[in-house]
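Folding follows sequence. Below is one example:
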Amino acid sequence: MSNRRVAPNRTAHPAYDELRAATRELRRQLAHALSIEYDWRYHDGPEWAARYWRAFGDLAVDLAESAAAPRYQRVIARSEWPSLSRTEADDVRTIFRGLVAVAHPAVDPAAARDARASLWPKILRAYRGGDRSALVAAWSETRALLRGPGLPADVVTLRAEHDRLCEAAAAADRRLAEMSQIFPFNMRGKLDDADWVRRQRIALAQVQAFTQAPTDGEVAHKQVS
């Protein structure tokens, strides 16, 4: 009689492995969408707004909406990560996206209940400030906390997690779609097109001329006419 141990059957349901793979993919998709959303809100968005007002602020019809306004000066002031090179900024984004995948409570609900719950606010604060060293430290700390894949072991709970992730990923995609239609997120890619900037400046100059109040000389001329 053989003493060889038989490996336990880890597939508790015929569709378990397929469901597990689909759930992992949904987590990946959600983490990717959330990373883009944070990037737009905290870094790309302010940069696009600043570039827009540098290009068109002198043509603003309403002075309160011009680049001279304090709130736009604040936007312009934080439009870049002055302490980071482009390579370092890309590195910060890469580290942050990895952290979103393992520490964001929407991606992994367990992260809201274990030691990662206190790490996520620090991670977000470091990312907003472009603090690479803090993100690297958070990465090491977060990885040390992970004990396994973090997915439910039984098929019923796994199905519930799959459905939750499906809804969360769809909601994140909707937010990105809505953001892409409003300023400054709708400036993505346009400000690199010099011809588009030129056409926009012409159009805004025409609007500015049309909406300007007439001068005293123009009023007098109309009255004489």
User: Anything to note?
Assistant: Residues 4-9 have pLDDT under 50 and may be disordered. Residues 12 and 153 are 9 Å apart (CA to CA). The radius of gyration is 26 Å. Helices lie at 16-56, 70-77, 86-103, 116-128, 132-145, 155-179, 194-211, 216-224.
